[in-house]
UniProtKB/TrEMBL annotation:
Species annotation: Novosphingobium nitrogenifigens DSM 19370
Matches recorded under InterPro entries: AraC-like_sf (IPR038301), DUF1465 (IPR010848)
UniProt name for this protein: Uncharacterized protein
Amino acid sequence: MVSLSQRLVESLYGEALVLAENTRTRFEQVREDASPERLQAVSSGQPPRAHGVDSVEIMCEALRTTTRVMHCLAWLLNYRSWFAGELSAVQLRCHGRLITHFPASDPSIVARLPDDLAGFVRQSERLYERIQRLELALRQDLTEAVGAIARLRERLSYETARHA
């Protein structure tokens, strides 16, 4: 039985906010660092590169990583709303799901990123995996609870029919 506390949600939410800002800022710095190289590369006919990574690869990884963190934030915001009484349990079940098969980062690209940026990518993956494990456990508990209720109803129907 998994118990999701408001304290855990708030802690993960704070972690995700900091990670989102750090990741966005650092990817922006790398993009800006690539700009002079881009101008020089365009004039020489070479593809633009920064830190050994093509700028298109950098932008794709930036989008993938920030989207992953934003999905985590959305999931956490839904649970914050539920704890605050702004969402019902039914609304949370309908709208509070995490994407189950979010595309992973390309390890060959991450390996060529600056160390701190590669660390942010890995942190985003770990955060997503943690939240995904929480969600799977919560869904499993819900499925078991629904199954238990169905068994009780079936037993009640059987006993009622037997004594009628």
